[in-house]
Design goal:
The protein is of the alpha+beta class. It has a single domain, classed as Pyruvoyl-Dependent Histidine Decarboxylase, subunit B (Pyruvoyl-Dependent Histidine Decarboxylase, Chain B). 26% of the residues lie in helices and 39% in strands. The protein has 4 helices and 9 strands. The strands form 2 sheets. A 5-stranded mixed sheet has the order 2-5-9-1-4. Strands 3-7-6-8 form a 4-stranded antiparallel sheet. The model has no long low-confidence stretch (mean pLDDT 91).
C-alpha cells in the first residue's frame, strides 16, 4: 500500500495580534502580524510528526508560496470588550525517541495571564504525550510537578509554547490574537 499523504518534515511557530473596528479585519491583521496571511490555511489536529524539525519563521516562510494550501495547528481568540485579556497559545511536547510522534496543543482563553495561558498550552501537550507513553502522573497536579515527573522519566525531551496575548483597548475595537504551528514540506 502506498502512502499518498503528506508528512511534514519541518514546522515553525508564529503568533500575531490584530486590532480593527470590525472582527474579520482584526483577524486578517493578526494573520499579517504572524506572517501567514498569504496562504490558504487548513487547520489540522495536534500531532508533531516523528523526526520533524522546528525551524525559524523566516526560514519556513521562504519555502511557501502565496495561495499555497498550508497545514497548521492554530489557536485564536477575538473579543471587543474593553479591558478584556485575550490569549491564544500553542503548546509543544517532543518525545526523546526521534521515531515517535509528539503533540501540539491549542489553547485560547479570556481573562488568563499571558504566562498562565502559555503554561497551560504546554501542559496540555505534555499531558497528551505522557499519557501516550504510559507515564504515570496526577492529572490534577500543577504543571511544575508534572514537568518534574516528565523530566525524571526522560521520555519527553522538550516542551515549549508560543503565545499571542493582548488586552482589548478602551475603545472596544475588535482584537484578535492567534498562535500557530505551521507545517512546511
Amino acid at each position: 500500500m502506498s502512502n499518498t499523504g503528506f508528512t511534514p518534515s519541518r514546522l515553525f511557530l508564529t503568533k500575531g495580534v490584530g486590532v480593527h473596528r470590525e472582527k474579520l479585519p482584526s483577524f486578517e491583521l493578526a494573520l499579517r502580524d504572524a506572517g501567514i496571511q498569504r496562504y490558504n490555511l487548513v487547520h489540522v489536529s495536534s500531532i508533531f510528526p516523528p523526526g520533524c524539525k522546528i525551524i525559524e519563521r523566516e526560514e519556513g516562510l521562504k519555502d511557501l508560496s502565496p495561495g499555497e494550501i498550508v497545514f497548521c495547528v492554530m489557536s485564536k481568540e477575538a473579543n471587543n470588550e474593553p479591558g478584556r485579556r485575550l490569549a491564544a497559545s500553542i503548546g509543544l511536547a517532543i518525545p526523546q525517541k526521534v521515531g515517535n510522534y509528539g503533540y501540539l496543543s491549542e489553547h485560547h482563553s479570556l481573562g488568563q495571564t499571558e504566562k498562565d495561558a502559555g503554561d497551560y498550552a504546554e501542559d496540555l501537550a505534555a499531558e497528551m504525550l505522557a499519557s501516550t507513553l504510559g507515564i504515570k502522573f496526577d492529572v490534577d497536579s500543577d504543571y511544575d510537578e508534572k514537568r518534574d515527573i516528565f523530566r525524571m522519566d526522560g521520555r519527553i525531551v522538550n516542551t515549549r509554547n508560543t503565545i499571542a496575548f493582548s488586552t482589548v483597548d478602551e475603545k472596544g475595537r475588535w482584537t484578535t490574537v492567534l498562535a500557530a504551528a505551521v507545517f512546511v514540506p
